[in-house]
Amino acid sequence: MDRRTVLKWGAAVGAAMMCMTSGAQAQDTIKIGEMNSYKIFAAFLEPYKKGWELAVEEINASGGVLGKKLEIVSRDDNGNPGDAVRVAEELLSREKVAFLIGTFPSHVGLAVSSFAKEKKILFIAAEPLTDKIVWDQGNKYTFRLRASTYMQTAMLVPDAVKLKKKRWAIVYPNYEYGQAATAAFKKLMKEQQPDIEFVVEQAPPLGKIEAGAVVDAIAAAKPDAIFSSLFGPDLAKFVREGNTRDLFKGVEVFNLLAGEPEYLDPLKDETPEGWYVTGYPWDQIDTPEHKKFREAYMKKFNDYPRLGSIVGYSTVLSAAEAIKKAGSLDTEKLVAAMSGLQHMTPMGMITYRPQDHQSTMGAYVGKTTLKNGRGTMKDWYYADGAKFLPSDADIAKMRPAD
Amino acid sequence: MSLSNIVIQFLNGLAGASSLFLVAAGLSIIFGVSRIVNFAHGSLYMLGIYIAYSLIEFFGRSSILGFWGGVLLAALIVGLIGVVIEMVILRRIYRAPELFQLLATFALVLVIKDVALYIWGAEDLLGPRAPGLRGAVQVFGRRLPEYDLLLIVIGPVVLGLLWLLMSRTRWGTLVRAATQDREMVGALGVNQTFLFTSVFFLGAFLAGLGGALQVPREPAQLMLDLTVISDAFVVVVVGGMGSIGGAFLAALLIAQAKAFCIGIGDVVVFGTTLSFTKFTLVVEFVIMAIVLVVRPWGLLGKPQAAQRGSTMVEPPLHPLGKTFWSVVLGLVILLAVAPLGGDDYLLVLLVDIAIFTLFAGTLHFLMGPAGMVSFGHAAYFGLGCYGAALVFLKLKLPMELAIFAGPLAAGLGALIFGWFCVRLSGVYLAMLTLAFAQIAWSVVFQWDEFTGGSNGLIGLWPSDWLKDRTVLYFVILAFCVGGMAFIWRVVHAPFGYVLRAGRDSPLRADAIGIDVRRFQWFGFAIAGALAGLSGALFAFSKGSISPETLAVSRSVDGLVMVLLGGVQTLTGPVAGAAVFTWLQDEIARNTEYWRAILGITILVIVLAFPQGIAGFVKQMMTRKGLLKEVAA
């Protein structure tokens, strides 16, 4: 074979492949672009992916949306804004997706929300907790599913106020989420308990806590209670050192997110008793909508759902409901449909609030406990997100006009 | 701080120092002998903790023998993995240009991460407390874990054992000799192959041991590799590369500094609160910067011995001939007609490639012609991003003007940092650039009101006339091609000749009256400013930026592009940036375990083209007579 023949064949194969890919873009599917930092936050996002896969399966089994099959085109955004925006461009221009969903870390969520505003497409942020994505830096095209840092902090405040503890220690991972949680907690507590004292504040770098030293520094301040927003490996190290060094004896501890299976399960027999947490007691929630979800999930994946599973599942439900309500894939109609959209999730009914595009999805608030060698939650209740948001006037002040 | 607090934080510091020392010692030994900057050392540590976790679970959580057997066995297994890595991969590329091995170890990081994810899953795995050492002892009314006391002892014991091994055995003598003068050891008939393999075994064993010993203190998880590697590098460099005692001293210094920053907490000075706990984010890099400025070879290090003939010597550059410019012209024409293809995404990807080419091009200018390796080049990329973004958002200047604030800010940063950096050479220079980059990163990361903190800045969209993708593409392309042409011109200007003279023979350059440092300083600033330009273009092409633009990973990406393309070829960064960006995009889209596949692809390239992609093409062209023979 001479060079020319090779070139000819190459061109033919290339053309054939082009035909195949364009052929695959059949007209009977609706494509939605999904992006997330699958490799960087694998512990949360593997269950998340399973969650949305289940939702797609169920939606298509019951006839899809607008008579068409729903298809999720998923991409890894590599956990940074630059790659995320590139992936978003690819989803829009090559895959011709109707709109975007997903993202985990706050800075990526914000970058995609800015992209959505610029390109005038709908973006449903699944997981980013930052308050800014719906408030200070909110925009017309962005909606957010999960209960934000502020909301989850506010959910812990009633219990914290009831205890009437005066001396508080604070520990948080040193980045926006930890800073925002700390600021919200201090503000809300001071409003209800003016004599409160914050005796020590520790801000270890994310993922690099020197747990022994931090525990001793907190112990030295002799607090009555601790407010922590640690999670993941930082939380595990803090709990182990704190247990070994008796930090938690006679001290009440509040820890945002620590009841989520993603962060609670690794603690196993080290699970502390009686910490106030937000989380997800998946094995104890017996509402019909959750039971149905749990059974379907366990049947399909032979594994139990984590919080990520619910987030993934509900995000796709929101997307499908928005399309149904809009009756079209036109962005303006979709955005109008999202505003005030109400639908059922495994956690119950949620509404995307028109005033700030935040969904009212709540969280489960309760105490940690050790049962059969593993951590779980007790005395928990579902805190409806709608009840833990600032007043409409405050939000109007923060949120830029569309 | 009360006395009891001081004592207890001092003990915490000691325990932390032991952990740090174990990882760093292995890295230091490997570097000393093989001159390999082993980027995968953190990955070996991570494997150590994962394997030990599995073995301890297998032997039973509460058996003392099972625990310690598991720890030692895990370290041994990791040692053997190190041997395999050395024999299968590194051995084949010892003669490649300096630092090329870093590319191979970077690929290993990617592969090992995905392998660990595949085997152990995504969930964090917290091991049991050490059997027999579950409790704590009372110290000044505080409780210190028994296991921490053991760690405090283990560090110095390992130091002692290593000292015995190095000073009392024949093998140790050979290692020390090879650290000092590798070629001479070879010339004396010592079996270098065995020596290198055994050194790699010891280094990997120590990394594995360091990881395994952490099982009772922290969960095994997939981020450990990168967290640990930066700490280990800092310790090794502060201590002096190749010096085990220095590594111990440095580990002690850094761990104590961290413990005391945490112990001191918030301090009110003149009415403002200084948070020392937040300072732990960057304290090790500040220490490294200070140490390197004061002692250019670390605390107990010695000046690096020159390497003779072990690597490919860079041939002198020849003036850019017609072939070069016609290739460039052809490429530009190809790029100019790309929009006709009608694929919008292709333009997006080409914009990314163009920007990274310019970024890699400036790094290549530093590493190649100027002879200064930078591990922190992202600092200037990021300063460019933030300079342009802040002028655009805060001063409300139009984007067309704001773009020029990028190179200005980055050039200024490079002038300041560069003044210190050019006083050093080799890996120490590289590490000082890293230290400055990390300090810049931590400022951007923490300065919420000004830089947007960890969330970064959003809403940096170009002016209306640039909204069209094709127009934006041409503008960015023009900047990048212009930037690259400028660099190529500079390399062949008298200024470039001077830089190359300074690189090839600083002594002779000095002797003929060239102020080498001053030229290097300006070279550094030029590279920084142009990297800042690429950053500014990046900001407006993405619409948002975050501190990641100055983070280590961005610097490493730049290094990978330059090495992949070939350090000794001017067109190297073009090939490297294009191939790396395209590969990552393509592989990430089509496969689940994309990091492993990307890593394996890079490994294949590394083994097939030890002179880089562009270097390989050049060699082929020379062989076919298309290019004139370069090295006479």
Task: Write up what this structure looks like.
- The complex is a heterodimer of chains A (402) and B (632).
- Helix content of chain A is 44%, strand content 20%.
- With 402 residues, chain A is an alpha/beta fold.
- Chain A folds into 2 domains: 23-148 and 286-362, 3-Layer(aba) Sandwich (Rossmann fold), CATH 3.40.50; 150-284 and 364-387, Rossmann fold, CATH 3.40.50.2300.
- Chain A has a 7-stranded mixed sheet with strand order 7-6-8-9-10-13-14, with helices on both faces. A 5-stranded parallel sheet of chain A has the order 2-1-3-4-5, sandwiched between helices.
- In chain A, helix 2 crosses helix 11 and helix 3 (81-93) packs parallel to helix 4 (106-119).
- Mean pLDDT of chain A is 92; it is low at 13-25.
- A two-stranded antiparallel ribbon of chain B has the order 1-2. Chain B has a two-stranded antiparallel ribbon with strand order 3-4. A two-stranded antiparallel ribbon of chain B has the order 5-6.
- The N and C termini of chain B lie far apart (68 Å).
- Chain B has 2 domains: 3-294, Orthogonal Bundle (ABC transporter involved in vitamin B12 uptake, BtuC), CATH 1.10.3470; 342-627, ABC transporter involved in vitamin B12 uptake, BtuC (Orthogonal Bundle), CATH 1.10.3470.
- Chain B is mainly alpha-helical and 632 residues long.
- The interface between A and B is large, with 66 and 76 residues.
